[in-house]
Amino acid sequence: MKLALALAAAAGMLxxxxxxxxxxxxxxxxxxxxxxxxxxxxxxxxxxxAGATAGKIADTSGHGLTLSVRAADQGVIRFDAxxxxxxxxxxxxxxxxxxxxxxxxxxxxxxxxxxxxxWSARVRVTKAQLSGSAxxxxxxxxxxxxxxxxxxxxxxxxxxxVVTGTGSATAYIARSTVSVADDVWHKVHCQRTSTMLAVYVxxxxxxxxxxxxxLSISNTAPLRIGGPNFNxxxxxYHGLLDDVYAELG
Length: 249
Description:
The protein is mostly beta strands. It has one domain: Sandwich (Jelly Rolls). Helices cover 4% and strands 40% of the residues. It has one helix at 2-10; strands at residues 41-46, 56-57, 67-72, 78-80, 83-85, 99-104, 117-124, 134-141, 144-152, 158-164, 171-179, 186-193, 196-201, 204-210, 223-225, 240-248. The strands form 2 sheets. Strands 1, 4, 5, 7, 12, 13, 14 and 16 form an 8-stranded antiparallel sheet that branches. It has an 8-stranded antiparallel sheet with strand order 2-3-6-15-8-9-10-11, with no helix packed on it.
């Protein structure tokens, strides 16, 4: 038999085995760059392990994008065991609603244009902590320039990734099929490629939407974490947060 196989191989008669196919309905995991594709470059990271010093949080990627803590109406952001806790949901009838967010200055590395871009955070939140849509990461303002954003939906706490291109009022939203508002830590990340915006939860793709290849994201706005601003109806995040980062390319 071995002799027959050897002769068949020499004659080019053996057919190589087909690669195994993925199981039907299996979820997509975070794609890994091939040997010919450069890995994305880390352009910003805040792990919060050292907490805040004089209201500042260092960028551990080495790119110098220091976060500043901002607060309104007696809001306090707490740093404990390497995580961030935002102010609680405002109680019904309260005259003051404590709020807090963190802000990094505008940077060319956070303006990807039409290039591939990822933004990510670990979150822990309950449905009771959702008083509406909750902004986790946002750079840019809808209807003014361009924007990339990560938020949680108000109804069920499903992660959403949002982009708006320069010169367009159209917002493209990739919505997760699963909720993260279950008081368990989850990694959420958004990924923009040429013609696709995808949302991942715990490294599994949970939603996507098509976008134009020409969609360009570039603005002069700061990056804000935990809320877009301190307006009366701002979409503040009220849960725990850890390990925020962005990758370009």
